[in-house]
Design goal:
By secondary structure, this protein is α/β, with parallel strands linked by helices. The protein has a single domain, classed as Vaccinia Virus protein VP39 (Rossmann fold). Helix content is 34%, strand content 14%. The protein contains eight helices and eight strands. It has a five-stranded parallel β-sheet with strand order 6-5-4-7-8. A three-stranded antiparallel β-sheet has the order 1-2-3, with no helix packed on it. Helix 2 runs antiparallel to helix 7 and helix 7 packs antiparallel against helix 8.
Length: 328
């Protein structure tokens, strides 16, 4: 995956010191969207649907997460967060830039990473794969393929092999991780690298200040015990990806966990910015991550899911009393 040396270059502390001037920030509520909305929107190519004020796409069964303006903002925040965390590097794998000829971005989303790499390395060919249709890139060396990455890859150039496969933050989205990793392996040049950066849904503290039954701790447990089972998509892929990557055939697999603060409370300027972006990423993403699975698979309703989202964001340390199902 990535070299230990490149990870150490990030100079991130084991324990994050707190900025004494940090104070809690208020939570903005964007208002209640139309909770009863449920209609289908047909395009010339693909079908989208509206549920509870959010837009979803149905191609290849679709994703349990929305695809709309709010999710676009979430993608932008994640991209900026990763660039700050990794010191403006798009990858940490020890690849000589002169050897970076073909790159694939699996689950490319808005294509921010793919187009960033295409711009920074104009001699490389970059392919972004996603279930959502994407407009033509402004960079001539970047293209997109509409496909489920866990199914067979049908590339425009069947002889193309990749030097780097990049995956980022696809928790809860992939139906078959083993097949996805195998496709990466089968479509790579000998000596190529795979780099997977995943958000670990496992809230931790450097002290015992947050109680075990708090909202934020409840959410971590709920994602693994309920959402993964109900959706058939792994929300805890960060815990098992190393084993699956090795089983796909990759060697010299290395793993590093990086602490990411939730909120701008760190005294270190870099981690303060990372925390600020992470808090916005969390707040813009949480309702979308919960809504489809809670209402469609767990028997919950829109109001309770929205209330849960607001409560977790507003009072992360408060004791949770949420029951996953509320079907009458």
């Amino acid at each position: 995956m990535t070299s230990e040396k490149n990870m150490e270059d990030l100079n991130l502390p084991n324990v994050i010191s707190i900025d004494e001037a940090y104070g809690r920030f208020g939570t903005d509520d964007d208002g209640d969207r139309d909770a009863s909305s449920s209609l289908s929107v047909a395009s010339s190519a693909y079908t989208f649907r509206m549920e509870h004020g959010r837009r979803y796409h149905d191609y290849k069964i679709g994703s349990p997460f929305p695809h709309d303006e709010v999710s676009d903002e979430n993608d932008f925040l994640l991209h900026e967060l990763c660039l700050v965390l990794l010191d403006d590097r798009y990858y940490l794998a020890p690849i000589d830039e002169t050897s970076l000829h073909c790159v694939v971005d699996v689950g490319t989303g808005l294509g921010l990473w793919a187009e960033g790499v295409a711009e920074r390395f104009p001699d490389s060919q970059v392919v972004g794969i996603d279930l959502t249709p994407h407009p033509r890139s402004i960079f001539p060396n970047c293209s997109y393929m509409l496909s489920d990455a866990s199914e067979e890859w049908v590339l425009d150039d069947p002889t193309m092999k990749f030097d780097l496969a990049h995956i980022r933050s696809l928790f809860g989205s992939v139906p078959d991780w083993a097949a996805l990793y195998k496709n990466c392996f089968d479509n790579m040049n000998s000596g190529g690298w795979i780099e997977h950066l995943e958000m670990e849904i496992n809230a931790q503290t450097d002290d015992a200040e947050v109680p075990a039954d708090s909202q934020i701790k409840f959410l971590s447990s709920f994602a693994h015990t309920h959402m993964t089972v109900a959706s058939g998509r792994d929300f805890g892929i960060s815990f098992g990806m190393r084993k699956l990557i090795e089983e796909a055939g990759f060697v010299d697999v290395q793993e590093k966990r990086l602490k990411v603060p939730l909120g701008p409370w760190a005294s270190d300027p870099k981690l303060k910015e990372v925390g600020r972006l992470c808090e916005r990423f969390y707040k813009t993403g949480l309702q979308g991550w919960l809504m489809h699975v809670c209402t469609r698979s767990l028997g919950g309703n829109c109001y309770r899911t929205k209330t849960l989202s607001i409560t977790i964001i507003s009072y992360p340390s408060m004791t949770s009393d949420y029951a996953p199902a509320s079907r009458r």
